[in-house]
Structure formats: C-alpha cells, structure tokens
Amino acid sequence: MSKRKKYVPKLAKGEWIGCMGLTEPSAGSDVAALKTRAIKKGDEYVLNGSKAFITNAPIADVAVAYARTSTDGERHDGISAFIIEKGTKGFSAGKKLHKFGMRTSYTSDLIFEDCVIPAENLLGKEGDGFSMAMQTVEWDRSTIIAPIVGGCIFALKRSCEYSKQREQFGRAVSEFQAVKHKIADIKIFLEAARPLVYRIAWCKDQGQPINHLEAAITKLFLGDWSLVPIDNAFVIHGSYGYCHEYDIEKLYRDSRLLPVAGGTSEIQKLIISKLM
Ligand SMILES: Cc1cc2nc3c(=O)[nH]c(=O)nc-3n(C[C@H](O)[C@H](O)[C@H](O)COP(=O)(O)OP(=O)(O)OC[C@H]3O[C@@H](n4cnc5c(N)ncnc54)[C@H](O)[C@@H]3O)c2cc1C
C-alpha cells in the first residue's frame, strides 16, 4: 500500500487562527446528518456544501471541516475530516453574524463551492471524521466552562461592591435580606462549580482523557445552573444592570451561549443518561 503524502501547511508556524466546521444549517444536534460532500477525484477531493455558526470562521487561516465521503447511506461512519486553508479556490466565509452575546468572537458560515483540495489534506483515514469531531467537541465542552466561573467571580465581586454602595430607604441595599440571599446564592454556585471545572482542567493538565460523562455533567451544570446566580447579579444592579456600563448585561448575554453551543443541554442530558 502506498504511503499517503503528509500534509504540509503553507502558513508560517505560530501564526494560525483556526476554526472547526461541523455544524450545518440543517445538522445541529444531529451532526451525523451533515450533508457537505467530499468526492475523491485522483489525488484531490472536491468539497461542496456549507457550515453554520462557526467560531472564528471570518478570520481563520485554516479550517478543519467535516464532510461526507461515503455515498452508501452511512451516517457516522461516512464522515471524514479535512484541512482547508484560507485562499483555497471555492472556499469562503459568510458574513459575520450579529449575535446576542460573545460579540468579541467572530462567527459565520463556511461555504464550499467546488472547492478542490489535495488528498493529503484528509485528516486520518476516510470515515475517521465523526470520532475526531467528538474528541474536539469534548475538548470544546471542557474549555467553554471556565469563563462561567470567571464570570461568576466577577458577578459576586460587583454585586457585593454595588449593593454596599447603593442606598435606598436610607440604607445600603446590601442590608436587605432579599439582596443578601441573592449574593449567598452566587457564592454557593461558585463554590459548587469551581471544583468541577478544576477537575476537568487537572485532567487536561495531566494529559488524561476526559470522560465524556464528566464533561457532559460539568457543561450541563455550569450552563443551566449559572443562569440563576448571573440573573441575581443582574437584579441586584437594578436598572444599572440593564445598561452597558456595568458589564453585567454582557455577562448575562455571554453566559446564554453555554447551554447551546458545543451540544445543547438537552443533548448533554441524553449523553448522561446513555452513559450511566
Ligand atoms: C456562538 C456560537 C458558536 C458556535 N461555534 C461553533 C463552531 O465553532 N463549530 C461548530 O461546528 N458549531 C458551532 N456552533 C454550533 C452549535 O454547536 C450548535 O448550534 C448546537 O450544537 C445546537 O445545534 P442547533 O442550533 O442546530 O440546534 P438544534 O439541533 O436544531 O436544536 C433545537 C432544539 O431542539 C433540541 N433538540 C434537538 N435534538 C434533540 C433531542 N434528540 N432530544 C431533545 N432535544 C433535542 C435542542 O436541545 C434545542 O433546544 C456554534 C453556535 C453558536 C451559537
């Protein structure tokens, strides 16, 4: 069997911005239903299709995109992963999306129109794509959670400061029991969430594989349950919380992504119940 040529990037080392194209307009939670096709023609693949909601797509130098290489109706087994560099003919990014939150990151479609790439840009073997995608998603689930802990530290600090300084009815609002309870709830969530995130980070640090059950539980817990403490901070700030200057509304908007991206909370529950 002849050895495949190794993929050699044309970009200089250390200068890459990458993106991962898995989701499609009609394949979100059910990613195995993706429709982008890669047809082998001699030493090349021809890609046609599109990806949706791809982080970094408008600014990426290189994309790893998943496409169907099999035509015989296979779902998971017919998917392969490809490296596509910016500037490749037939490869483009769509218009930057105007998002509810996470506005500092760029998100758009990826479009493949008779996009021809060398065969060596296939990652691994044909049909390896789905398991590669799941490893990437597991990594994604493990890293997307840390900003929530950071966000809740910020929410706690800001809520303590603001409630001590804001006076109503002749005293600081921090003296009202309803406000104290909201602050206590932020603290309780933070103390419960932090060890979960640290455990995942420790496993990554040690080079240990993350177990999918732990990653799904952690993502679900932080995604769904952080909505209460972050909403508490929002409420403590009254109308100022609703305004841009206090950054609480930004935290509120950004945190809404966690129960959606990298697999929705409903999908995490399916994973948890399947693996139990
Ligand atoms: C800001 C942002 C960045 C993103 N970045 C990337 C990226 O870099 N790369 C990438 O590939 N993707 C990315 N995504 C896509 C994201 O991972 C998907 O949007 C997500 O997996 C959900 O898919 P969907 O939007 O198609 O929802 P759908 O799958 O259409 O789901 C709609 C609703 O139905 C529910 N649902 C679906 N199936 C089931 C089921 N079996 N049981 C119960 N409920 C179900 C869902 O939970 C949801 O509530 C990003 C998305 C956003 C918003």
Describe what this molecule looks like in 3D.
The protein is an alpha+beta fold and 276 residues long. Helices cover 40% and strands 20% of the residues. It has 2 domains: 18-126, Butyryl-CoA Dehydrogenase, subunit A, domain 2 (Beta Barrel), CATH 2.40.110; 144-275, Butyryl-CoA Dehydrogenase, subunit A, domain 3 (Up-down Bundle), CATH 1.20.140.10. It contains 8 helices and 10 strands. Helix 4 (212-225) runs antiparallel to helix 8 (265-275) and helix 5 (227-236) packs antiparallel against helix 7 (248-255). It is elongated. The relative contact order is 0.12. Bound molecules: flavin-adenine dinucleotide. Flavin-adenine dinucleotide binds at residues 19-23, 28-29, 53-55, 99, 102, 107, 257, 260-264, 266-267, 270.
Shape: elongated
Present as ligands are: flavin-adenine dinucleotide
CATH top level of the largest domain is Mainly Alpha
Give the percentage of residues in beta strands: 15-25%
Total strand segments: 10
Instruction: Give helix and strand order, one letter per element, not per position.
Output: EEEEEEEEHHEEHHHHHH
